[in-house]
Structures are given as C-alpha cells and as structure tokens.
Specification:
Elements: H1 2-16, E1 21-27, E2 36-40, E3 51-54, E4 60-66, E5 72-76, E6 83-85, E7 90-96, E8 101-104, H2 110-138, H3 141-164, H4 169-177, H5 179-182, H6 186-196, H7 203-217, E9 228-230, E10 236-238, E11 246-252, H8 257-276, E12 278-284, H9 289-299, E13 304-307, H10 310-313, H11 317-320, E14 328-332, E15 338-341, H12 345-354
Parallel strand pairs: 1-7, 11-12, 12-13
Antiparallel strand pairs: 1-4, 2-3, 2-5, 5-6, 7-8, 9-10, 11-14, 14-15
Length: about 350
C-alpha cells in the first residue's frame, strides 16, 4: 500500500511540472485589488503576453507556462514596475519583501543566482531611502555623506550583478533596464559596458552601444574651454588666471540640493586639496543672482565663486563644458587639459602625484 501511495505522489509531482514547463504560485495581499498576473518579454506590451492567469478572490494565483530560458518580466496587475523572472523548469513562488516582490525557488538556477544580487540591491536601496527621509527631516551633513556612500555602493552592486552574467543576453538586458543610472554618469556607463562584455548580437545590445557611443562623443576632452566670468564683487576671472596650477571646477546651482551637499563635502576636503596645490572654482548656473549670493552666504564655501554670464563670456560656460547634470566637476591640469570628470579626492591626489 505504501508503495502505491509513493507511486501516486510521484505521478502527481510529474503532473505539476515537466522538463519544459514551470509553475509560479503566490498569494497577493488582500488590499492589492489585482485581478490578473501576466508574463512579458522586454518587448511585450498589453495583450502580447507569454503567459497569464487570473487571481482568485483570496489572492491566490497559479501561473503555468513553457520554459523560456531568458529574462522576462512578471506584471502583477497594475501595481507598476515589473518583476524579473527567468523561467527554467521547476516550481517558483512570488514573495513580497519590505518594498518589492521577488520570485524565489528552492532549486539552484539562474533565478536564485539573480535573487542574491537583487536582495543586496534592495537592502541598499531601503537604507538609502531611510537616510534620505532623515535628511529631509534634519538636513544633516553626515547623512549626506552616508547617502552618497550608499549611492556608490548601489552602483557597485549593480555592476557586480551584470558582471555575474557577463557575455550573456541577460547582461545586456540588465544594463538596458538601468539606463537611467548609467546615462547620468559616463564613468559608471564605462563600467557597465565592461561588465556586459561581448555577448551575442541583439537589438538590446545594439541600443546600448549606440547610447554609449553617443554619450562618449559628448564627453569633454582635450583643452578646457576658456571662460571669463564675474565673481561676487564683479571682478572678471579667467581660466588662464590658473595656468600652471591644477584646477577643480565645480558647476552647481543654488536650487540644486545635491550640488549644495557636494559643496559641503568639498569644503571638508578643501584643506587637503590646498595642501596638494589644487585650486577650486565654483561656477554657478543660477539665473537669479540674489539666490546665488544667498546660497554662498549660507554655505560659506572657501573658494572662488563665479556666475555664468553669457554677455561677458560670449557663450554659456556650462554648454562649453558639456554639462548635462549638476553637480559636475572637472579636474584641469596646469597645462589646461581636462584630466577627469567628477573625480574623487583620491583620484585628484593620484593625478597630482603623477604630475
């Protein structure tokens, strides 16, 4: 009798999944109001789905489909966002973390490998949101440093995840899905391209390479554009005034909170920069002079402050320097060459010591 029961259970399990199918189960929160679960490819929209199922009144659902062996997206009704799912053969369940849903499985495979990275990224994101909330409440300087540390750590975790799938179609999708991050920092984009590697040709990969090459062409290289801008007293300051010295130029604005935080960080490192022989100049993108002066009075930077003035300079200095996001900083050599964009203090020190 025991043998028969075991045999029947085995047959039941075989009926659940086969070598070319998967099953995804889950229970949604009572207040989710989700009526349908469906699976999409990156290109999938609306009715163009690979699998779908209805959600029962108690929130339970069972989604069945064929193995795809590629990274797909699970849409949970109209909740917004998409959940990564790599449907190899086997059984999966949808679990809700603190802020995100995640598809988990006991079996070792691509999904479990991906989840290790996603969990670390989610934990870092939660920590950063907590810091940002406290920053809004207290405006603490140390919290700004912690926020920047967590942002950099998040970037490192993202690159690490992509590297783990290097030279695969999945690596390209992970880069494409995080383009909003890569497109704001060319050095990070370079790391993303390296992490992606030379995978198989695809529309996604070609799209990434095109954006990378477009962004590369926009990077400022060679001789730093000259400028003639007024300081707080109306005196004209020129780039040539700094010939023979290392110069760190900080493009910022009074209304830009990250810029103001960056200035506070720079203020902390300013004695070290002076010790290295590096001059610092702030160039404000403000259109309101009074707001610019008010911000300087509040932040008390210890370096020269200039205001963009097209009439005096002849052009928009921010455009000349190809500034797309602020804050943007450039390290300029004693010969007037662009050395690095958004350098860390450690990178500045390396450049100066190489001299």
């Amino acid at each position: 009798m025991k043998t028969i029961v075991s045999f029947m259970l085995g047959m039941a399990c075989l009926a659940c999944t086969s070598s070319d199918s998967y099953i995804l189960r889950g229970t949604l929160p009572e207040n989710s109001n989700v009526k349908e679960i469906y699976l999409l490819s990156r290109e999938g929209k609306g009715a163009d789905t690979l699998a779908r199922c209805l959600v029962q009144a108690n929130g339970n659902f069972v989604l069945k489909g064929k193995v795809e062996n590629r990274l797909l997206y699970l849409n949970v009704g109209n909740r917004g966002g998409r959940i990564y799912f790599y449907p190899e053969a086997g059984e999966y369940r949808l679990e809700q973390g603190k802020d995100e849903f995640q598809i988990v499985s006991e079996q070792v495979g691509v999904q479990s490998k991906l989840n290790v990275h996603l969990k670390k990224i989610e934990e870092n994101s939660n920590a950063m949101r907590s810091v940002q909330k406290r920053m809004a409440e207290t405006n603490g300087e140390k919290l700004g440093e912690e926020n920047e540390r967590l942002w950099k750590n998040g970037n490192d975790l993202l690159v690490s995840m992509i590297t783990d799938f290097k030279e695969t179609p999945m690596a390209a999708i992970l880069v494409a899905d995080n383009m909003w991050i890569f497109s704001s920092d060319f050095k990070l984009f370079e790391r993303g391209i390296e992490a992606m590697g030379n995978g198989p040709d695809s529309d996604v990969r070609n799209e990434i390479i095109k954006k990378y090459e477009d962004m590369k062409r926009k990077q400022l290289t060679g001789k730093a554009p000259d400028f003639k801008l007024p300081d707080m007293k109306g005196n004209i300051v020129k780039l040539s005034d700094y010939k023979g010295k290392y110069l760190l130029v900080d493009f910022w604005a009074s209304w830009c909170k990250p810029c103001r935080m960056k200035a506070k960080e720079l203020k902390k490192h300013y004695p070290r920069l002076k010790e290295l022989g590096v001059e610092v100049v702030g160039i404000s993108c403000d259109e309101n002079k009074n707001q610019w002066l008010k911000a300087i009075e509040e932040d008390q930077p210890m370096w020269t402050q200039l205001l963009i003035d097209k009439k005096i300079n002849g052009t928009d200095t921010a455009d000349d320097y190809k500034v797309e996001f602020i804050p943007t900083l450039y390290l300029i050599s004693p010969e007037g060459e662009i050395l690095e964009k958004n350098p860390s203090v450690e990178e500045i020190e390396t450049f100066v010591k190489k001299g």
